[in-house]
Amino acid sequence: MIDLKLTKEQLDELHKEAAENSCARARKKCWVVYLKGKGYAHREIADVVRVDEDTVTDYLRKYRDGGLPGLLTEHYRQREGQLEADAERLKKVFEENPPHTVNQAIEMIGRETGVRLKHSACRAFLRKLGLKCRRCGLVPGKAQDDEKQIQAQQEFHDNKL
């Protein structure tokens, strides 16, 4: 068990941060340390804040070792994608020769890098590069551009409309 002796200023700082911080996780961490400074037991704190007792111990260690800034830091690590190293090169390839479909983009990425993406992953990667997937409209199949058709339309326009 970690025993913290907190001053009134430290308790006030924790209370202010717990009340005003925009991040719910940071507020919860501050409440855990604040309650420990008020003398509550780990089990009681875990019950009130609704976290595990090991989490209470972890938060208290972080505060003991790094103070309030150490408590509030988040150490999330995002995985780096397989195509991050080739992103700029692929963007140039797509700008020079834009693919018509996502499937075509998948094939182009496969040829350039050897990595085969799924449809949704390719769309997400294209958005990350700043490219957009657009749907093309169809040209009507019966559109004709001969003189007879144009004359019939003009007559309809003049006489009936």
What do you see in this structure?
The protein is mostly helical. Among the domains are: 8-72; 84-128, no CATH class. Helices cover 62% and strands 0% of the residues. The protein is built from 8 helices and no strands. The chain has helices at residues 8-20, 24-37, 42-49, 53-72, 87-96, 102-113, 119-128, 147-159. Helix 2 (24-37) runs antiparallel to helix 3 and helix 3 (42-49) packs across helix 4 (53-72). The protein is elongated and about 95 Å long. The N and C termini lie far apart (89 Å).
- Rg result: 31 Å
Instruction: List unreliable stretches of 5+ residues.
Output: none
* Major sheet: none
Q: Mean of residue pLDDT?
A: 88
- Secondary-structure class: mainly alpha
User: What general outline do the C-alpha atoms trace?
Assistant: elongated
Distance between the termini: 89 Å
Q: What is this structure, in a nutshell?
A:
With 161 residues, the chain is mainly alpha-helical.
Q: Tags for this entry?
A:
single chain; 161 residues; mainly alpha; 8 helices
